[in-house]
Amino acid sequence: MKIAYKIWLDSNGKAFGDGPYELLRRVHKTHSLHQAAFQMGMSYSKAWYLIRTLEERLGFVLLKRKTGGRSGGGSQLTSEAIGLMEQYGKFRKEAEGTLKTIFRKHFGKSP
Amino acid sequence: MKIAYKIWLDSNGKAFGDGPYELLRRVHKTHSLHQAAFQMGMSYSKAWYLIRTLEERLGFVLLKRKTGGRSGGGSQLTSEAIGLMEQYGKFRKEAEGTLKTIFRKHFGKSP
Could you tell me the end-to-end alpha-carbon distance of chain B, in angstroms, rounded to an integer? Predict the structure, then answer.
C-alpha cells in the first residue's frame, strides 16, 4: 500500500499545479510554447488555452510573446511566472516529502 | 489563492480515501450499508461494489453481513475495517493540517 495524491492551487478553479509547472519549466528552457507543448504531447492550442485560463485565475500574465526576428519569435516567462514556478517547486517538494513521512508514521510502510 | 488536494491510499488502484472513509463511518454508526449509502446519495449497488473492490485491493474483509432476525439483518465493520478507519482518520487529519502549514509557509496566505 502506498500514498497517492494530487495537489494544486485554486483560485476560482484550478490555477496552478504539476502540469502547468512542467509546461512553464519547459518554456523557460526552450523559449517556446510550441516546443514545450510538443515535448509534453500537448497541442499548441491546448497549451495556449491553458496558459490564458491560468493567467485569468492568477490575475497576472505568465508569458511574453516575442514576435518576428530571425528566430521567428518565441515565448518568455514573466518575472511573476518565474517567481510562481520557484515558489510552487519548493512548496511541492516539501509537501511530497512531508506527506510520505506522515504516511509512514501512520501506516508504517515506505511508500 | 488556496491549496486544494486529493489524497488516497493505493494498492493496485484506489484502495481507500475520503469517500470510503465516510461510508464506513456511517455503516459503523447505522449498522447498515443501505442506510449509509442512502445518507451519502449513493445507490446500494454502487456502495456494495465499492466495498468489494476495496476489500480486494486491501486484501481483507471490511463488512460482516448479519442476515435475518427481527431487524432484517444489517452490516457490521470487521476489526480490520475499524482499525483502517481510525488509522486513515488520523493520517488524513495530520496531512490536512501539515499541507495548510506548508502552503502558508511558501505562499504566505491562510488557505
Answer: 7
Rounded average pLDDT per 10-residue block, chain A, 111 residues: 95 95 96 95 96 96 79 83 96 96 85 41
Predicted confidence (pLDDT) at residue B111 exceeds the cutoff of 90: no
Give the closest of B9, B87, B107 to A3, CB-based: B9
The CA angle A77-A98-A9, to the nearest 5 degrees, is: 40
Asked if B4 and A3 come within 8 Å (Cβ–Cβ), the reply is no
In B, minimum Cα distance to A99 occurs at B95
Q: Hey, of B98, B102, B104, which one would you mutate to test binding to chain A, going by the most A CBs within 10 A of its CB? A: B102
**φ, ψ for residue B25, nearest 5 deg:** -60, -40
Specify the amino acid at residue B70.
R
CB contact under 8 A, B9 and A15: no
Q: What is the ipTM of this complex?
A: 0.85
Quick one: closest CA in B to A96, which residue?
B99
CB within 8 Å: B106 and A94: yes
pLDDT at A74: 87
| Length of chain B (residues) | 111
| pLDDT tens profile B75-104 | 999 999 999 999 999 999 999 999 999 999
